[in-house]
Amino acid sequence: GVLMMCPMNSYLEQELDKRFKLFRYWNIPQTQQFLKENSNSIRAVVGNSMAGADAQLIESLPKLEIVSSFSVGLDKIDLNKCKEKGIRVTNTPDVLTEDVADLAIGLMLAVLRRLCECDRYVRKGLWKTGDFKLTTKFTGKSVGIIGLGRIGTAIAKRAEAFDCPISYYSRSEKADTNYKYYPSVIDLASNCQILVVTCSLTPETRHIINREVIDALGPKGVLINIGRGPHVDEAELVSALVEGRLGGAGLDVFENEPEAPEELFGLDNVVLLPHVGSGTIETRTAMADLVLGNLEAHFLNKPLLTPVV
Ligand code: 8YV
User: Fold this and answer.
1) Which residue among 5, 68, 70, 76 has the greatest number of ligand 1 atoms within 8 angstroms of its CB, and so is best to mutate?
2) Which domains, ranges and CATH numbers included, belong to the chain?
3) ipTM of the predicted structure?
4) What residue's CA is closest to ligand 1, atom 4?
5) In the annotation, is 275 catalytic?
6) What is the pTM of this model?
7) Fewer CB atoms < 10 Å away: N or C end of the chain?
8) What region holds the D-isomer specific 2-hydroxyacid dehydrogenase NAD-binding domain (predicted)?
9) What is the pLDDT of residues 44-53, one digit of tens each?
10) pLDDT (tens digit per residue) in 138-168
């Protein structure tokens, strides 16, 4: 049996239903009771960025062999526990990189050129009352990237096409790039106009965007977050935006999804998206195929396609 943690993709759900005995965790009223009765028949868990496999779930599934995540991010999976118990873990890298990087650039353009506000202006019939106010140029702005992995590199490549000077922060300097390296996030934030969070969420990167970093970015700076909500101290971000201490923000992720801070709803220098970085038909289908391919490989004793543990 396969335990799917929450609704994520209808094609994936249908295929899991065809190929396995599928348990839908979100439809189960008494989860404790369910786990007691079925724990011996569940050999795989399918999770995503909302719900994965924490220590408690792993402990309650003695026959669990693999956690196949419908996400590249692994922050909802207790990787140490999986290692300890010999449980395999897979994710969906590469197939979503382009979409997430495209969306990051889209957010930069949307915030600086006020695309959403422009659209509201036309729809409200305000165009007849006069021209839209002037906005801010994107080409040539310096872009600072936190985490120069697959997604960070794809964003850098795109921003280079807009003549943006690129700098980055990561734990260590990368040998294979000429982008300027800052060993401190605050220094990176002080030296760029647009700061993008692209790293994975770990205890070390939680609240990597704090008040000091926001103040270093400053009243003309723009924060883009396509990583995870908890990368940002959201209360600090909200007060900085409300008080005008930060120039703007483009956010695809939030600390308490599906909640987004209502204090931001009235701000035109902020663009808020419902965690749609990988949300295209093409990419979500490719992610589903990777989840299915990893499960199939595991149960056929073949090498996993995208193993993490
Ligand atoms: C989500 C993501 O998994 O890949 C990730 O880490 O955050 C997304 O692709 C998406 O919400 C799928 O359910």
Assistant:
1) 70
2) 2-93+280-299 (3.40.50.720), 97-272 (3.40.50.720)
3) 0.96
4) 71
5) yes
6) 0.97
7) N
8) 105-277
9) 999 999 999 9
10) 999 999 999 999 999 999 999 999 999 999 9
